[in-house]
Write a structure and sequence with these properties.
411 residues; FAD/NAD(P)-binding domain; Enolase-like, domain 1; five-stranded parallel sheet; 11 helices; 26 strands; binds flavin-adenine dinucleotide
């Protein structure tokens, strides 16, 4: 069947990319982009970094200006999808209307996992997901004296670095025994823990939060799982996300840890695709296991894959995953997935915090983590995307250089 209308639910990184790529691919039909947030669609990464620090403004975060959506005939609607009527290929809107689709893209992303402890509703307690969160936090962080960050993942640590730079006392609570444990090697965790400590951040590993206490509706203390009461006039939590699967679930689609899609990012309904933070797809780099990735690269590349399929160029999604985080003066870039890594080779200057950790599963290079070595990251992406294999023996040689090896391996 010819596709004449595509409705995209969610105007984040993935949803907007589908719309852009459809036009780039020559799609001439109707495109409707449903946005349940205020204003024009924007990028999320600066919310916990440059935008929070006031280094970039609102306009710099926008994907495109209004004129782009007008010129490209992308109908950008401020509305929320409430229900999918699969039989009639129609999306019902919270405002009361409905839009018919030939193809529907579920790009609803994920929401912050709530703190779920007594006192979580107090003023001064924030997750960071939207521009509205960052706007409120950018004022609060300048006034805060005692900041408690719950969760030492990317977002928690990005905020911890900002709060420390603003002069606050920062305590980080983390149930695990090292920062960013889900995403990076213990070598890289140690480097970042040292860096944060040098910026004045204190870590409390193996420690959770059991309650928040306050007065007059404002948070004042955090009660930790080991019974301490930490002063806190600002609490920021980053303890993971919950995919926004409800729309798909109510429509009868499979939604275990994300909307289940096949290698081409199609759900079991051939008229519905899903992508980005909300989608669980068979990931080549994770042995084909259903995987949900939370990154800009994943949402954007999946958007391109879906748009290409809709104009008749189907291909399995196989892009190499990559991620980044900015904390203080450190930029960490990760190429590949380090799940199951058991051997590590470190390159560069560890004390200067300019280092790359090559992560191996057996003798197979599966990921490269680069701190303040952007060149290594670029070459790592090339090396991981194609053979020949960079073995541990080669990488462990004195003075080994990724750039030189990548160039030689192509010759
Ligand atoms: P989103 O961008 O979250 O967009 C989903 C949109 O759908 C949202 O606007 C949501 O409100 C909307 N929506 C949900 N339900 C409905 C509905 N029923 N109707 C209409 N709209 C709906 N990734 C990186 O790679 N590097 C980083 O440095 C980085 N930093 C980050 C910092 C922060 C503070 C956050 C929150 C995320 C960060 N990420 C980073 C993750 C990255 O932003 C996400 O992986 C990416 O945004 C996922 O894109 P998406 O399109 O799947 O979802």
């Amino acid at each position: 069947m010819t596709i004449e209308s595509v409705v995209i639910v969610g105007a984040g990184h993935g949803g907007v990319q589908v719309a852009i790529s459809l036009r780039q691919e020559g799609f001439n039909g109707r495109i409707v982009l449903l946005n349940d947030e205020r204003g024009l669609p924007y990028q999320r990464p600066p919310l916990s970094k440059a935008y929070l620090l006031g280094k970039i403004g609102e306009t710099a975060m926008l994907f495109r200006p209004q004129s782009f959506y007008d010129e490209q005939r992308i109908e950008h609607l401020h509305d929320r999808a409430s229900h999918i009527d699969r039989r009639n290929q129609r999306v019902m809107l919270v405002s009361g209307g409905a839009i018919d689709y030939d193809h529907l893209v579920i790009a609803t992303g994920a929401r912050n996992r709530p703190l779920g402890v007594p006192g979580a509703e107090l003023g001064g307690v924030y997750g960071i997901k939207t521009k509205a969160d960052a706007d409120a936090l950018s004022i609060r962080v300048k006034q805060a004296r005692d900041v408690v960050v719950v969760g030492a993942g990317f977002i928690g640590l990005e905020f911890a670095a900002v709060a420390a730079a603003e002069g606050a006392n920062v305590e980080v609570l983390e149930l695990g025994d090292r920062p960013m444990a889900r995403a990076v090697s213990s070598q890289m965790s140690a480097l970042f823990a040292d860096a944060h400590r040098s910026w004045g951040v204190s870590f409390n590993f193996g420690t959770g939060i059991v309650a928040l206490e306050g007065e007059d509706g404002a948070v004042q203390r955090v009660i930790t799982s080991d019974g301490r009461r930490l002063l806190a006039d600002l609490v920021v939590y980053g303890i993971g996300v919950v995919p926004n699967v409800e729309l798909a679930q109510e429509a009868g689609l499979d939604t275990e840890n994300g909307v289940r899609v096949n290698a081409e990012l199609l759900t079991a309904d051939p008229s519905i695709s899903a992508l980005g933070d909300v989608a669980a797809f068979p990931c080549v780099q994770n042995g084909g296991a259903l995987t949900r990735l939370e990154s800009v690269q994943n949402a954007v590349d999946q958007g391109k894959t879906i748009a290409a399929r809709l104009v008749g160029k189907p291909a399995p999604y196989a892009a190499l995953p990559w991620f980044w985080t900015d904390q203080g003066n450190l930029k960490l870039q990760i190429a590949g997935l380090s799940v199951g890594a058991d051997h590590f080779v470190t390159l560069g200057d560890l004390p200067a915090r300019q280092t790359s950790v090559l992560c191996y599963r057996g003798d197979e290079l599966i990921a490269v983590e680069s701190c303040n070595r952007p060149g290594d990251h670029i070459y790592a992406r090339k090396i991981l995307a194609r053979p020949p294999a960079l073995t541990r023996a080669i990488a462990s040689a004195p003075d080994f250089d990724l750039k030189a090896w990548e160039a030689a391996s192509r010759a």
